[in-house]
Amino acid sequence: MLNRWKISTKIATGFALGLAIFTTIGIISYRGTEQVISTARQEKQTYQVLSQVEDILSLVKDAETGQRGYLLTSDNRYLRPYNQARTALRARLDEFKRLVQDNPGQQSYVQTLDSLVGQKLAELDNTIRLKQANKSDAALKVVQDGEGKRLMDQIRDTVSRMKAGERDLLRTRSQIAENSARRTLNSVLYGMPLGILLLALIGVILNRQITRPLNRVSAVAQKVADGDLTQSLECTRNNTEIEKLMTAFQNMTKSLSALITQAQKSGIQISTSTTQIAAAGRQLEATVNEQVASMHEVNATSRQIASTAGELAKSMDGVAATAHTTTEAASNSQTNLNKMQSAMQNLVLATNAISAKLTVVDEKANNINTVVTTITKVADQANLLSLNAAIEAEKAGEYGAGFAVVAREIRRLADQSAVATLEIEQMVKEMQSSVSTGVMEVDKFSKEVGQYVNDVGDISQQIAGFIQNVQGLTPQFGAVSQRMDEQYRGAEQISLAIGQLSDASYQTVQSIQETNNALTQLDDAAQGLQREISQFKV
After folding, report:
1. What is the mean pLDDT of residues 474-491?
2. Which residue stretches, if any, does this entry annotate as coiled coil (predicted)?
3. Is domain 244-534 in CATH 3.40.1230.10, yes or no?
């Protein structure tokens, strides 16, 4: 089903799914955040309610304290807390009513508390008025009746119930806020990876549905551009943009292949015909040109032979003298090569002596290594003895203090000996490595020098043979000089005959060149067409 969708539909669907996922996550996060903010506002209101309740109870206590102080002392200063509390209680009760107006459960407690506070203030005001009227006994009797204590207990009980209700409401709201925050966190924590995974899956599907077919089309197009028209695309019956593009490209390739095939056949026929005609014309022209050129060359050569024959006869004497000089120089070179061969043989002997000395050095290095091993063992034994001496000195106490110093010094020397032997052993190993390398290089050099000695001997033998060959040439120079005179006379006769034949061939060449020019132009056009068409493979 997905294969039949258009590209725009696939892309729009992918973006719509991604947008839907992240929109859902955003909505959940927004609602969770809004719930947390609302709960936090309600928690703040709950804390304000608890604070107002505590303040109301505290003001009632202040009023009661001021009333009692006045009843005991008749001092109007004790009425100051009473008057302040009476004034503040009305404002606090009104504020408290405003805070709990959205809580029906607390409104009944508010009405009860308002009534109890009013009764308590009336009771306090009654006792104060009686005291101010010098009716202390009546005021005391009102207090002793317990009405004020009963009202205060009811106020405390009402406040406790209100605080308990607010604390329960606070716990409920805190739990709601925590659950909302957890839902928001879970939606982000699991929704984001799920959204990313789904978008990645959508991207992979779109890549397979869009990119892969386009890559196939691009690869075939590149091969067609390179001239390979044998490529084809597997097209389905899906009515998508990609399939339409692949079908149109396949039809274009077939049409282009048929056109190139027909052009190749026509080009081959034209090229074959023009090639055959041009080849025949060029062959005829080349044959005549060769004849004319040969005639000119033979004519020039015959004249040159005549001239050169005289000069060669004069040069033979100089050649004979030069051959004699060359023989003497080759003899001197052979003598020098023999000296060089002797010197190289001495160099081989010296190289072998150096190799033997290096072998002796390697053996001495092995002996040094054995001595170093012995020194190492002695140092280890000395270290063990110093340890035993230190133990004995420790047992001897103060009498063995000097012996302990000697033991430490022995241990130190043994450690230094061990370090020195390690360094010597390393140096010996490096020297052995260098000696082994030197021995191999000297052997290699000795072999190369021996090869050079053999090469010099071969060169000396070749020079000896060269000397013999040069000495054998001298008697032949006289015979060559006589032959030069005979060739001079024959060359003059040949030159006269060729001059007459050259004039007749010149006219034939001009006619053939005109024909070949026309054939060359036709052949160039046919070859150009064939080269352009041959780039395509059908």
Report:
1. 64
2. none
3. no
